[in-house]
Task: structure prediction
Amino acid sequence: MSAAGTRPVDHYENFPVASWLCPPRLRAPIAAIYHFARTADDLADEGDAPAARRLADLTAYREDLHAIARGAQPSPRWAAAVFQPLAAQIRAFALPVQPLHDLLSAFEQDVAKTERGAAYADWPELLDYCRRSANPVGRLLLHLYGVSDAQALAESDAICTALQLINFWQDLSVDIPRGRYYLPLAECAAQGLFISDPATQFAALQPDQKTTELIAACARQAGASMQKGLQLVHRVPGRAGWELRAVAQGGLRVLERVEALGAQVLRQRPRLRAGDAPAIAWRMLRM
Result:
């Protein structure tokens, strides 16, 4: 299941890769999905390439995905590292390709919004981004686990969206200086913060009562989404279900850190530490 917000593996945050809880037969397809997403994330986010080059690279990357989906050969650039392993797992597990296209659309949106210095207008716009940036990974993993009923898919989406939102609030001190503005403008306005120039006004936010209330409102949105999905742990079989418990409880623990910091999260990134493990394990058992 998606692990946005906990950053368990390297820098791509959407899911843990082949952890010891993952069923061994699923480690290869999960790793293939991970490397696809991580490489696309790098194209969108790493280095100092201009936005036009990033978008061109993501377009070429999408064309390679189209190629392997129809049984053709991808271009040499990412073939060995990404598309040949992914093609093998698409064939072996009948992986749906649309969720992978959805991920790419989210990466493209990140590039475009950062280039324009644009923020998200409201919760519906931000949640639509989560639908494409986080939810596809959960749906791909459910496919691998053989879980496909509508209720499980809805619960997976709720957990993945929650984890993505937690990641946003955890990373405000990192994202705002980089020109990524995920605090919805309508929620800002509801707390008395009227943002007309995101590039300057988000950077100038102070840890006062208004921003404290803003962070609390955003944390509540993430927590409510997580609660909608937690019954999924009883639908995912075996070791995968325990991995989902770990991811969900890890995300909730991060959210507690965000809530404890309040507006200081604008200056400091909360992290999980070794001392959090017993509490997470206990909560996993209580689920």
In short: The two ends are 16 Å apart (CA to CA). The chain has a mean pLDDT of 91. The domain at 24-286 is CATH 1.10.600.10 (Farnesyl Diphosphate Synthase). The CA atoms of residues 176 and 202 lie 7 Å apart.
